[in-house]
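REQUEST
  id: r-88c1
  op: predict_structure
  target: Cellulose_synt domain-containing protein
  payload:
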Amino acid sequence: MAKDICLPLFETKSAKGRILFQLYAASLVVSICLIYAYRVSYLPVDGGIEWWDWIGLFLAELWFGFYCLLMILVRLNPVHRYTFRDRLSQRYEKDLPGIDIFVCTADPSIEPPIMVINTVLSVMAYDYPQEKLSVYLSDDGGSNLTFYALLEASRFSKIWLPFCKKFKIEPRSPEAYFRTAIEPLDDPLKAREWHSIKKSYEEMKMLIETTTKLRQIPKAVRKEHKGFREWDFVTSQRDHKTILQILIDGRDPKAVDAEGQPLPTLVYLSREKRPQYHHNFKAGAMNALIRTSSRISNSPLILNVDCDMYSNNSESIRDALCFFMDDCQGHNIAYVQFPQRFDNLTKNDVYASCLLVTCGVEIEGFDANGGPLYIGTGCFHRREALCGEKYNRDCKVDWKSVNYQGKVEGSASVLEETCKVLASCTYEEDTEWGKEMGLKYGCPVEDVITGLCIQCRGWRSILFNPERKGFLGVAPTTLLQSLVQHKRWAEGHLQIFLSKYCTLWYGHGRIPLKLQLSYLPYSLWAANCWPTLYYAAVPSLCLLQGISLFPKISSPWTLPFVYAIFANSLYSLGEFLWCGGTVQGWWNDQRMWLFKRTTSYLFGFID
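RESPONSE
  id: r-88c1
  status: 200
  body:
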């Protein structure tokens, strides 16, 4: 038993095949150097337009070479993490900490309430002591339709949660489960219950979708819960007071499911909105949740997910705890990031929305270089790190001696009133919220800059990419959606690079140099537009003028160009296939690479 206490709760292994990659990278660097040698050796001496075209192409190639080195650095030594949940259970089962789960939504017309509650139900059904779970839904749209859907979900959870645990089903989003599950004909008991639960879900879904379509709550329904009275004072979605309703109070002995087991706490929050105040989008909503939850449940760990990203793995909490609660390596971990994965894409992913290589290779390399960036969803946080505390040796927690539950007193109705001020427009005035506390304000990618600041305060971050994906979401499925999303990302990352938070100086002396450089490929996404546009357009235009910017086919100088093109293409194809993609999917990814660099990144750079 004493030996078991010393065993780690997770292990880290380097990825295989690194020697082959290093040989490829070295050969690619040699070919790039030879290309530079050709440009210098055959520089036109007569000046004129040909000289300027040549210099422009040389500068573009210098940029591509620099960017290639950054991408090599990110991929140089990726690592994989593995957890030991059995050891966690043996050591801490009776002392597991509370978990606050934040789900954020903003617009019921874009994010349908039925989708939102499927995410909520999936995180309520984790394989974890229910009394230690508190689920908060932040509705920045201030919609009574979303509130109604959550009310229906709170009732459905009384039969859904026991069903999930009894038959150990995956995934635990009702929509995703019934879409993929096969009727259990070999088990009459399960089949009967399966049909009953499915019928209940379809009835609830029909009610919610009908109400959403009519955009009106029936009078009979409005009388069922006092929370609907809050909307009597709502002027508009952008002008209303704080609406806070505790739909399930986990401390209440009567808050039990159909089998008498306790239910998780379930809270609806729509923070105060006034036209004269800037609300800071998702970052503002998250900070309001952090403050409100600190008064209601105050769990030491926080999971945040977007409303379109349901839990696909009921063991994700235990996996994350293996990192936080490891006796030797867990005390300085601020957050555990799960990769973004999607379940609404076709096999060949026409618009390259799956981020296959980014999540399958690049972020694992990021992890090896000092810790992954925070991507805004599917992330477990240590509350104190998210609230701005710097890491020091005193941050080490004795999980067995600290009981975070039962600290909050007062009835649900009292908490609803006293907590409203924490989500008001004026609460953050003359405070450090949005600056040193909570998520950062003033940047389109507030998640990335928040993660960077946490790392610069001495904390570590971890990427965990389990075999069964932790979360599955909805990716853009049209060309416009994809390009607009990448435009926002590119703009936000460049904004960070051009601000005081640039990793090269803000991170200097605070995070490893490898991690500083690992952020740069994303920070410089937008800057890629200019060399790409030049390389794509100018050589073709020069041919019309009889100006050749490349060596003749018969010249040996052709070899480094040919090698760089084919070696890079073959490697990227192999990498894409290794991550689970297809040849057609890779081709679509290459096509979108050019689209993004000549549109999204260009407009992101200009903005």
